[in-house]
Amino acid sequence: MAKTVYIAGLGLIGASMALGIKRDHPDYKILGYNRSQASRDIALKEGMIDRATDDFASFAPLADIIILSLPIKQTIAFIKELVNLDLKEGVIISDAGSTKSAIVDAAEQYLAGKSVRFVGAHPMAGSHKTGAASADVNLFENAYYIFTPSSLTGQDTLEEMRDLLSGLHARFIEIDAKEHDRVTSQISHFPHILASSLMEQTAVYAQEHEMARRFAAGGFRDMTRIAESEPGMWTSILLSNRETILERIEDFKERLDQVGQAISKGDEEQIWNFFNQAREQRQAMEIHKRGGVDSSYDLYVDVPDEEDVILRILELLRGTSLVNIHINEENREDIHGILQISFKNAQDLERAEQLITENTDYTVVIK
């Protein structure tokens, strides 16, 4: 039976989700809320949604499933608003927030006693692009779509959500909301703090040592890439996961102090072990074997400085889905190859390696 789905928030995530739902359920009616008219108009024009509104409450009673693809504070505010609306009996309410405990707690507090089913969710996919204009039906492909069930999650809720979202081609997984926030504080939230802190430190340092800007190369670029993320979103994430993130900061301070003491003492063995353990631990982690918001698969090609060499390689890769291409030419001290090509999945990476290796004599490195 065709269902009515209401997506509140037609940014990159919400609009891409609408496309994915349409792919497998073309008969479903998709309603959309967005505050700005621009995204509403684009979503309607491109057929992502069937109807649009800037009044959240107006479409909520019509929906069999409501997905709140909004900033964390606004998600909680809309959960409170849903309490006073005449919703369909047994309606499923979900969200797309990057932290889960605050949202799940709010749902359990405000929606208790209502005939609703709530399940927290976090689609771990994204892009540097924003808005409905950047919507991509393949945005979630092979990425984790995490469900954090609540006391209001019915027995069949997750099954219905997986069916609804089957067209996203994501990897569905369940985890407790608090454990989700602990894990993401370490592998997502805290790294953003590190990247931004390193950028701030370098910017101040470069005021007296101008060449620091010029010499910054591959390693620095890779470590600070996520410092370009949207400030409002990350402010909200940190403030909704304070305790766990503060714990990660204190833990890291202690680790930095240990390295500093080893350097101060000239303890060569401890310093060597520090780097060696990190290398072994990174090699053992399945960083590129699983989907996630920052997952990519990188191939480096050491190409000569010749006319059309990059075009030649791209021609070999015709039909292969590329995420990004970067030419590492300013500083070669810490790079694996001059041409860096990023892919969305391991299959495309392996195919590209085979094509380039078989058809050229260039050195190819996978990282």
From TrEMBL:
Q: Name one GO biological process term.
A: tyrosine biosynthetic process
The residues covered by the Prephenate/arogenate dehydrogenase domain are 3-293
Q: What Enzyme Commission number(s) apply to this enzyme?
A: 1.3.1.12
Gene3D superfamilies with a match to the protein in the record: 6-phosphogluconate dehydrogenase C-terminal like domain, NAD(P)-binding Rossmann-like Domain
Pathway participation: Amino-acid biosynthesis; L-tyrosine biosynthesis; (4-hydroxyphenyl)pyruvate from prephenate (NAD(+) route): step 1/1
Superkingdom per UniProt: Bacteria
Entry's Gene Ontology molecular function annotations: NAD+ binding; prephenate dehydrogenase (NAD+) activity; prephenate dehydrogenase (NADP+) activity
InterPro entries according to UniProt = 6-PGluconate_DH-like_C_sf, NAD(P)-bd_dom_sf, PDH_C, PDH_N, Preph/Arog_dehydrog, Prephen_DH
UniProt catalytic activity:
prephenate + NAD(+) = 3-(4-hydroxyphenyl)pyruvate + CO2 + NADH
User: Per its UniProt record, what Pfam families does this chain match?
Assistant: PDH_C, PDH_N
What family name appears in the similarity comment? Belongs to the prephenate/arogenate dehydrogenase family.
Q: What is this protein called?
A: Prephenate dehydrogenase
Which organism is this protein's natural source? Streptococcus mitis
